[in-house]
Amino acid sequence: MDTAFLFTYASYSYPHHSDPVHDLDLAAYGVVRCLPDGSREPKEAFHAYAAWPGPRGGALSR
Q1: Higher local confidence (pLDDT), 48 or 62
Q2: What is the DSSP-derived secondary structure letter of residue 33?
Q3: Cβ distance 61 to 53 under 8 Å?
Q4: How far is the C-alpha of 28 from the C-alpha of 17, rounded, in Å?
């Protein structure tokens, strides 16, 4: 693969919950998880996309 398209940064209506039964974030496309206190936390996909090689370094560094 030589191209990736990031189409959802965060799914605010799918908050993360520590109990997997109530964790709506498991169905979210976002690369960050939205926590109950309103903060956001990067997921593994965020770091993978940020490390993607590009003309100016990682894709998220632009």
Answers
A1: 48
A2: E
A3: no
A4: 12
